[in-house]
Each structure stands twice: as structure tokens, then as C-alpha cells.
Amino acid sequence: MNSKSLIMLGLAVAFGLVAMLLTRSMLAQAPTRAEEAQDILVAARDLKEEELLKPDALKVIRMAKSAVPAGAFTAAKDVAERWVKTALLEGDVVIEKKLGPKGTPPGLVANIPKGMRAFAIDVTEQTGVSGFILPGHRVDVVRYENERGAHRAESILQNIQVLASGQVFTRAEERSLTTRTVTLAVTPEQVDILVAARGKGTLSLSLRGVNDHEVVARPEPPPAPAPAPAPSPAEDTRWKVAEEHRAKLERELAELKSALAAKAAEPVRKAVRHVHIYRGGRSPDRVPLGGVAATETVVATATAGRQAEAIPGLDAAALQELAGAAQGAGGRQPIDAAALIRQLGGGSARPGS
Question: Could you identify which of 32, 40, 281, 294 might form a hypothetical disulfide with 337, taking C-beta atoms 3.0 to 4.6 angstroms apart as the criterion?
């Protein structure tokens, strides 16, 4: 080893010794101060929600003052008759935010924020998001209505806090609940909106995501149509006259229809014309025209043996010819008795009614 290396090594050792001596001197001069500590109240065992704090459930430990959280308590008497709002594990520091309000009973009443109201809504598997709406969640309230066949849905409230789901108002774990009601924290004005909306249609809930508190602007409804202007006095008078005239025509038409129906219901009487046959001084025989009956009457007279005195100017041959004509017709076609008598030239025929 040469002289140069020996010199460098000696300098390094000398500098190290000087540094060590300076450090020891500085440490000896610094005052030794112990860090301040204080008594802190912690859970002596696991505590459930709504459990009243009793002395056996708490204990006091010492903790560095710098590590003490805000709102911590130092003695059990400070939390007497308070109840647990959020579950605590053994050793957790008891702080104000984890306890229910002082002087209030455990339950839903203590969880309603100041100035708010609790309002329950009936839900089903569909309207309640399959039971996944739990206390502490945020939801939107949607109203559905079917008015005169027009289906319409509208979000009437947004970003509403859920206080309870059924009878559960604290959420011990993330799970679905089989429930028929969901209780919301709403303002008095929102209570009026919900009551009116429930009377018009079904209410449904839509679940919001974590930290999603944005209120979505809804489109403005279309303006209502302007009311029709009131008619002037002259138009009103003309309208009344027209209505009276229309009512009069309707009455007259109804009366005419009634009269026609009554007339149509009457039996139709067909006028029958007759022929009077004179036989000498005897009373004339009245025979109807236009039918087989006239011919049958004449034939019957002929077959009865009544000769020329029955019908003056009508001999037996003429009656026989009249009978043959009647038998030739076979009774299938009407025979005009007056025409036959005129054709045969016997007697006299005078129509009558």
C-alpha cells in the first residue's frame, strides 16, 4: 500500500469519528419529552345496531392524543342511555357519529333527518327492484298512469333517501329483502306530491348507483291549449234559434214515423165488386166479380135445374155452355161472371158494391 492510500484511509477514519462525536453531543443536549396520551372509550365486545350502551360493553384505554379521532368519548358516563347506530367491533373507538341521538328511542324515528318525513310506498317484485332497495340507498320515484288508453310514466321525485325496507331500517349486509313497503325520507311538500300521485296511478322505484346524486332535468310538459273564446250575444241567439228549429224538426219526424207505423199496422181490406143478376120478378142475386165464386154460383144455379125463368133471356143451352166454360177453367183461373153473361146475352148484369 502506498503512502497516498494510507493518507486517504486516515482521513476517512478521522471524519467518521468526528461525525459520531457530534451526533452524540446533539442527542445529549435534546430534552427527552414523553408524547401526551389520554383515556379513550372503546367497545369491549362486538356491538349490534340499536343495542343500548351499558358499562359492561365498554372499556377505557390510553391512546396517543394525536391518534384520537374527532368525537371520541373519555368515560362511560358520557354515553349513558345512548344506543348504537352503526355496528361496532371489539376495540373500535366509540364516537358521536356511531351513536343514536341522545334522548331518542332506538328505531326508525331516530333515523329521520330533521325537517324530513317518513313516507312508505307499497312495492312488488317489479316496482321494488327485486328487493335490492335497502336502507341508505337512493332512489327515484316514477308514477305510471293509464288515462283514457294513453300510457304515460313520469319521474316525480329524484335522489330520495331510503330509511327502511319493510321492517328493516338498518343494513347489516348487502342482500335482497322480501318486503312489501319501502320507507322514504321526504319533505312535507314531497309528501303531498306522493299522495296525489298515488291516487292517479302506480308508483315504482328506480335504484341509483353509489355516489350518483345528480338530478336529471325533466322536459317541460306541452302548454295547455288556449280556451275557446266565448260566443257573442248575437251568435248565442242564433245558436239557440237553430237548436229550437232542430228540436222541432226532430219532433215532427218522430210523429210522422209513428203515424206511418200505425197505418202500416192496420189490416188491408180489399174492395170486392159484385154483380146483381135479375131473374124476372124475383129478387136479384148478388154475385162477386173477379173470382171463381161467381162462376161456381152460376154453375150451381144451372145444375139445380133452374131454367129460363131464373135468368131472363138465358136458356138451358146458355147455362150449359157457361157450366162447360167453368169446368174447362178447372177453378185454376178466375172467370169474370159479368163478361160471360154479356157474351151469352142472357139476363142483365149490373155491377154493385
Answer: 294
